[in-house]
Amino acid sequence: MVDDNASAPSRAAFRSPRLDHSNTAMAHQHRGADSLPPTARSRQGTTKRRVHRMVFAGVIMGVVAIACSTGQTDTTTAPPPTVIGMQPTTTTSLESASSSTTDAPSGAGYGGIAIIGDDQIPSTVNPYAPDGDSPIVAIIGQAWLTGVWDIDPTTLELIPEVVTALPTVANGGVVVNADGTMTVQYRVRDEAVWADGIPISGYDFQFTLDTLLELEQTSDARLGYTAARVVRSAAQDKTFSMTLESPTLQFEQLFRWLIPKHAVEGTAFPDDWTDTPWPSGGPFVFDTITPGDRIVMVRNENYWKTDELSGLQLPFLDGVEFRFIEETSSLVRAFTNRDIDVFQPPPSIREVIDPLMDLENNGAVITVLPGRVWEHVNFQFGPRRLETSPNSCNENLAFRRAVMQAIDREAAVAAIYGDLIPPMGSYLDAFSPTLASDAWARYPHDPAAAQELYLQAVQETGRECTAVFSTSANAEIRPRLGKLYVDMFAEAGIPLELALMDSQPFFGEVLPEGTWDVGQWAWAGSVGLAKAVEFHDRFDPQGLPPEGSNFYRWGTSDSSVDDDSTRRFAEIVATMRTSVNAGDLRLLIAEAEAILADQAVILPLFARPVAGAVWGDEVGGYILNISRAGSTWNIENWYRTDR
What we know:
643 residues, Dipeptide-binding Protein, domain 1
């Protein structure tokens, strides 16, 4: 669930609680898929660690310009950098960046650097340390971490990274045993090595599992390893298997990032690795850190990936630099002045996106895509909705369908985002577009049809059927939409009252207690089939709060609706929880979505946009990814186009 205050992405910095307690902020939502539903303005194009410490200060240092073509840095106003000496024999310093001349495919050349701007300041680079789940850690992590899976920018599906294939029932990697347990097997790529030349092995899987299980048991970390309930495991040089207590898709989300056993074993994790990176398994290795200002990485000469078309070793770039610029205006100005090559602007601010679009004539490429955070209109089916709306008719299907057709989704989206994004046809677009169908296309904006359905509802219920629209009023989006709904409902002859309130009581009291009638808020989609399955718990008729998460109370024990649809939905959810066959799960998800649409339980409106900006005449290979992988998800494939 996403608070109204997040309706515009937060552009604040992350600081370590150990360093600065004065300013904490939410992570902003901006990670993306290459080809979700089309938009009118979307275009794509050593085994022993050294004791050098990386310290991230909680103070913003002055932003200094870097010449993109040479990679030279003027650090006269910045503090001396911290040098990370992890793998001195396997790196290429930025000072020699212009010496590489080998040709890469498609006219790309080896060499040069790319400069990435971001408004967050990392307090760590360890994804398993406190604050390690912040988006900036993932953005930086794509350049040096490695794990089992990555995220396809088009489908948002998981794709194999350090393994030859993701384990499934179909390929024999997942086996449900006769005793009711389930075994999952991984095969590590033969060529995969850490930056110090040590092979990535099944022992790294085992060490990662053991380390993170202990971390979950000794801290507040929720990484999924305890929930997966591993009963035994076995590791070899290039294989790893684990047996889980019962069939579950939970395994799918594990091993996002691997921890090298040979470097980390015998140390205190994560304390010893909060400010110090372990040997890289990605395309780049750490070179220098300028606290609060920038991180510089250079090519990992032992990187194991090659370009699929040419067979040439990746990465193409000699290095990358991450610059941290808190102010949105300063970040935009840095891009406009070509001080940075790539950044993700806040797409909800048209004052930012439109001027950036104007730069496309000068070589910039601006991509705007529907993101993972999606707004929806919904109904409360529990008894306490009558405290807010005594004439609520939410139990009546004709009334709910009348609301669906009274709301002009295209006009609502245009009022907030113009032509940046389209209305949402399926909530599954925020999880995996390949799962989605245009299920809500059956509800086009039709005031006359809405009025007819409304009058049917009045006759069937014997009530006036007044709707009371409740939502949070702290940010701009939902109050604006509420005012639009008043006019839309009036056109269809449906009485509507607004009940806007502060987000704290709305999310903290109204939603869990079920004291709203018609409402609106946002959910955040996530990648992987397991996450798509898990989302349907929000509508599980057996999930009455506080034990469950069915805030809508659709089909719950206190619901005004209990019918064949709710009972079938409960069966679907129960079956999905124990199924690990992808084909079966896809069919169940499709049926679940069809029920929610047919029964008019919710109305998906739109997914908040995600934007990416790159100087296409300087950096090639950039593809925006709306997931947490972010714009750096394929950073090993970037190259300089101006060499």
